[in-house]
Structures are given as C-alpha cells and as structure tokens.
C-alpha cells in the first residue's frame, strides 16, 4: 500500500510522439528530485510495468535527463496500443483478444512502491489515465498532442512546432506553384480538428483552407481558383486538414496495411481533392501529404517552454495531492483542471471565432 508521503513517482509517455515530450520528462525529474523524491520512467506507455526486470522501469536522475530539452521523440518510448483496459493478448490458437489488465497495472505500481504517476499523453492516453485514477491510482495528466484538440487548455505542447513545420512547407510550395502555374494541395494532420491547418494556412498565406469544422463545397474551392486566374494569379495554394470533408460527404480513410484490427486512419483527402480540382478546372494540380514530418524533430522555443512549465506544474500537483487532474495552459497561468472535464469532448475550432473571421477578412476561402 502507498503511504501518505510522496517518496517515489513515475512518469510515462503514451500515444503518438510530439515535440516537447523530453522537455516534460526533464522538468518532472528535476522538480521531483529537488523535493527529495525518486523518479522512475516507464518504457513504452504502460508496457514497461510488466517487464521491470528487462529495463521496463528505469531510474531517472539528473544525468539521464541532461541535454534532452531540445530533442524530439521521447527517451521513454511510447505506444498507442497499450490500453490496460483493453490489452492485446495472443491466444494459443494465434488469435488476438483484449483483456482488462488495469488491476495488474495498479498491482505493479504498488509492487514498485510508486506513490503517483505523471501521465503524458493526448486524448486517448488521458482517458486511460482518468480511468486508472478512478480505480485508485494517484495520477496527474499532462496534455500532449500536435492536434491541439484537448479541452480546458489553450494550447498543448507540440502544436506550435507542427504549425511551424507546416507553415514552412506552405512557404516552400508558393515558389514552385507560381513557377509552374499550378494548384498545390497540401494535406495536414489534425484528426477531427482544424487547428494546425487553420493556423499554418493563415500564417502561410494559403488561398484555400479546408477544415473538418466547416464541410466544404467543391464549387466554392473552384471559384477561388478561377477568381485568382481572372486577376492574373495563375497559381493557388490549398491547405486541407486530413479530417476535412465535402458537404454531404464523409471523411476519407486509409486502409491499414494488412487490414485486421488496426483502426482506420484519416488520409487521402489531399489526393482526392487534387484530382477533382484538375479535372473540373483544367488547372494542373499536385498534392503532397506532410504527414509525420509535423510531429518529428525538436520542439520550437514556445513548445519547449510550455512543456517545461507543464512538467514542473505536474510535480506541484503531485505535491499538493491534486490527483485526477490535468495541468492546462489558461493564459497567463498554468493551472490544474479536472481530468474528467478535459476528456469530455475534443476541442474543435469555433466557427464563429477570431481565427475564422481573420481568414475570411484576408480573403481566404474556407470552402463554404
């Protein structure tokens, strides 16, 4: 059983990687050590708990987190298939079934003498952390996703880096599009939220930005392209979020390699849209999918600072025993909010908000 006093905490990273994960880990470790606590890192989400003797649990000290703030990825590894409440197990006949191993997770924490967990992750990882918290595990969440779709926090770390990478890509497409008098379609990540596409599309002076929150009409896209042609601008830049969809249509998905259990992944809208534009306008059109370049590499300064603030705040929450909470940016402060509120629904772009109005005032077509 855990004592009332905090002596040892653990930290893990779950879901997709995002720039800034290592910065959070560093802040958690240094802030915890300054309080006289031990820190254990869990490899690959929760998987390391089931193989502690094979390095699944590692002791983190100042030396182990030295010089990692600027590094991309995570020194702890991550997994988006490690839900303890639906753990994949291969049976003797080769089939894969899902079993509830949440009790095993809590037993492993007790066996390792861990008094609290700092769980770093996005929507899915935070839902797992919330369920473990309800089961009695002392947990503090840290919101991580390039999609910026977690409620109750103004930004998630990793988002600004993704926007910077996407904006640079849009900048580079301008010159080649103008040189060849083409339409260039760039597909960006974001799942069901258009934050990355809208931020980078506006910053990169795109002509059309299509996001999931505003189903688009092809004729509206064509109208913008033709209007530019009429005014001597013989190229156009179209930014489309992977979850964008035509009015009355549906989101496009990519089939998982080999089929099977893996969930369908959003994707393909860029190629589909480019083919439509070329066929119906006669304009030579190319498309590109920026893909995982948006989540790779080191974090920009803003994400480094936010990640360090989040990590330090998470340790303060543990110290105050504010468990079942998530640290969140509510400018100018980082605060603790109930995790249940943060995962209630995904944070989408408000269609009547300032960003949308800015895009319209700049003459950017949103496809409606």
What does this molecule look like?
This protein has helices at residues 21-33, 102-111, 123-134, 159-180, 195-203, 218-230, 269-281, 301-319, 339-342, 354-361, and strands spanning 8-13, 38-42, 57-59, 87-90, 96-99, 116-121, 139-143, 183-188, 208-210, 236-241, 253-254, 265-266, 285-289, 325-330, 333-338. It is an alpha/beta fold and 368 residues long. It has 2 domains: 8-157 and 297-331, 3-Layer(aba) Sandwich (Rossmann fold), CATH 3.40.50; 162-294 and 350-361, 3-Layer(aba) Sandwich (Rossmann fold), CATH 3.40.50. The strands form 4 sheets. The protein has a 7-stranded mixed beta sheet with strand order 3-2-1-6-7-14-15, with helices on both faces. The protein has a 4-stranded parallel beta sheet with strand order 9-10-8-13, with helices on both faces. β14 (325-330) and β15 (333-338) form a beta hairpin. It is elongated, with a radius of gyration of 22 Å. The N and C termini lie far apart (58 Å). Residues 256-262 have low confidence and may be disordered.
Describe this structure in a few short sentences:
The protein is α/β, with parallel strands linked by helices.
């Amino acid at each position: 059983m855990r004592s009332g006093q905090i002596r040892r905490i653990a930290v893990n990273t779950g879901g997709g990687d995002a720039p800034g994960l290592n910065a959070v880990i560093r802040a958690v470790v240094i802030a915890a050590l300054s309080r006289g606590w031990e820190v254990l890192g869990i490899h690959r989400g929760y998987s390391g708990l089931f193989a502690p003797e094979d390095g699944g649990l590692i002791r983190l000290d100042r030396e182990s987190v030295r010089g990692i703030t600027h590094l991309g990825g995570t020194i702890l590894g991550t997994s988006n298939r490690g839900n303890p409440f639906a753990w994949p197990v291969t049976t003797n006949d080769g089939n894969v079934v899902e079993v509830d191993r949440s009790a095993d997770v809590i037993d492993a924490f007790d066996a390792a003498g861990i008094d609290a967990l700092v769980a770093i992750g996005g929507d899915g990882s935070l839902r797992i952390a919330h369920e473990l918290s309800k089961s009695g595990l002392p947990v503090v969440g840290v919101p991580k996703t390039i999609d910026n779709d977690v409620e109750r926090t103004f930004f998630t770390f990793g988002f600004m880096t993704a926007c910077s990478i996407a904006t640079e890509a849009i900048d580079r497409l301008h010159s080649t599009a103008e040189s060849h008098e083409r339409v260039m379609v760039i597909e960006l990540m974001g799942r069901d939220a258009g934050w990355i596409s809208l931020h980078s599309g506006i910053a990169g002076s795109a002509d059309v930005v299509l996001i999931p929150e505003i189903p688009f009409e092809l004729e509206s896209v064509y109208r913008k392209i033709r209007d530019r042609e009429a005014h001597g601008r013989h190229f156009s830049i179209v930014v489309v979020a992977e979850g964008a969809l035509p009015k009355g249509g549906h989101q496009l998905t990519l089939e998982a390699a080999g089929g099977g259990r893996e969930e369908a992944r959003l994707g393909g809208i860029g190629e589909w849209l480019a083919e439509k534009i070329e066929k119906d306008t006669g304009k030579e059109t190319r498309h590109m999918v920026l893909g995982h370049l948006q989540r790779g590499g080191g974090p920009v300064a803003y994400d480094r600072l936010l990640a360090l603030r989040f990590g330090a705040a998470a340790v303060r929450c543990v110290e105050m025993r504010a468990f079942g909470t998530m640290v969140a940016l509510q400018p100018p402060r980082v605060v603790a909010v109930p995790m249940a509120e943060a995962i209630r629904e995904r944070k989408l772009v408000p269609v009547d908000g300032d960003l949308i109005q800015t895009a319209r005032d700049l003459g950017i077509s949103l496809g409606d």
